[in-house]
Amino acid sequence: MKSFSQWRPHPWHGLDVGAEPPRRLHAYIEITPFDTVKFEVDKKSGYLRVDRSIRSSSQHPALYGFVPRTLCADRVGALMHEASRGDGDPLDICVISERPIARNEILVNARVVGGLPMCDHGEADDKIIAVIEDDPLWSNIDDVTQLPAALIDRLMHYFLTYKFVPDEPHHVSIGKAYGFEHAEKVIMAAMADYNDAFGDCEGNPLE
């Protein structure tokens, strides 16, 4: 039986995936564009942990976190030709906002528009791209092709360089950004992978 605190819901297991998946999701934000270190939810406690300092000079161009009750495992890995498996983490999501948001450990109502097919050490590590649902500037966006190309380039550059260490092998690759049609497949696969691994908090399959 899986056991989680009744007082503070675990952000991965104790929150719901969102209002209308796969289009409208909850995004739990771990990192903001103002952070110069990488924060990551500790899988056991649910609290943010300082994972590492970022070696590169670039900062994240969007809010960054994950979708609750998702997991990148066999089904997600099968959707990426270059990958042998999923990375074993919840599904990552980048959320674009017109207004600067400097706080992490927050929930955002996100509307999915696409994603980036990132492969890290042979593991699928997709980055879903979304906009804040009621954002006055971006709320009319339905697909990643409607976003400025420079914004997608910034996201790709960040993920290609934030782990880079001079004189060491580089194991990260990113293909062409995909639209909502493929993002839908990735999200549904990640929800199914989670259900296989965890069920609900009592160890039963999710409805």
List the helices and strands and how they pair.
Elements: E1 24-31, E2 37-41, E3 48-53, E4 63-66, H1 74-78, E5 85-86, E6 92-96, E7 106-116, E8 118-120, E9 123-124, E10 127-132, H2 149-161, E11 172-174, E12 178-179, H3 180-198
Parallel strand pairs: 5-9, 6-10
Antiparallel strand pairs: 1-4, 1-7, 2-3, 4-6, 7-10, 7-12, 8-9, 8-11
Please give a structural write-up.
It is a single chain. The chain is an alpha+beta fold and 207 residues long. The chain has a single domain (24-198), classed as Inorganic Pyrophosphatase. The chain contains 3 helices and 12 strands. It has helices at 74-78, 149-161, 180-198; strands at residues 24-31, 37-41, 48-53, 63-66, 85-86, 92-96, 106-116, 118-120, 123-124, 127-132, 172-174, 178-179. The strands form 3 sheets. The chain has a 5-stranded mixed β-barrel with strand order 1-4-6-10-7. A hairpin with a 2-residue loop joins strand 8 (118-120) and strand 9 (123-124). Residues 201-207 have low confidence and may be disordered.
Strand content: 25-35%
**Widest beta sheet: strand line-up:** 1-4-6-10-7
Form type: globular
Helical/strand content category: alpha+beta
Produce a short descriptive summary.
The protein is built from three helices and twelve strands.
Features:
207 residues, 12 strands, globular, five-stranded mixed β-barrel, four-stranded mixed sheet, Inorganic Pyrophosphatase, alpha+beta
